[in-house]
Amino acid sequence: GAYGVEACETIESVTGWHWEEQCFITLSNEQCRFGYRDSIFKQELKDKIFITSVIFRLTKHPDFRTTYGAIAQELERMKITELSARAVANAVMSIRRSKLPDPAVTGNAGSFFKNPVISIGLFRTLQEQYPDMPSYPVSDAMIKIPAGWLIESCGWKGYRRGDMGVHEKQALVLVNHGGADGNEIRQLSEEIIGSVRERFGITLEREVQIW
Fold it and tell me: Is the pTM of this model over 0.85?
């Protein structure tokens, strides 16, 4: 998922090889129990299924969502006057290229943390102290806060210690400048989680899977 759209919105079913049962199984969209950066494959079926195919059901009448992030501004910059799936995709890719490091040049795993979803009550309390805090409604009771904004507000953007650090253009991305090992990256993520929790009372969850 990215920029207000989730892949699960178009997934019809998922088929995979079940290691324990030694057979293929197919799960419907509902059975996959998709959530924000979550599914049954990260819960009770974690490490038990090798996904081999996915069936998508697409629409001939797409719902263009251009209000998320800087999509509208990028479309304007690109002088796009007629919306299409390709035009929106190109705008999103352009935005991401401008923000994210090329993994062929700088080691990274993309977005390292999930955007936290908090209660309306907590958001309103934080908003009194941080009126510029960006937010995206999830439901009548919950609000999504950009993890990158929280991390940047704690001073981590562009941070570097040895060969590990935080990307200078996107605080959500941890980078390896060449010689850092997994334990160092994990330790850095723990320090970031701790500082965000101390300042905002929000506990970030890693999106990257660590064993």
Answer: no
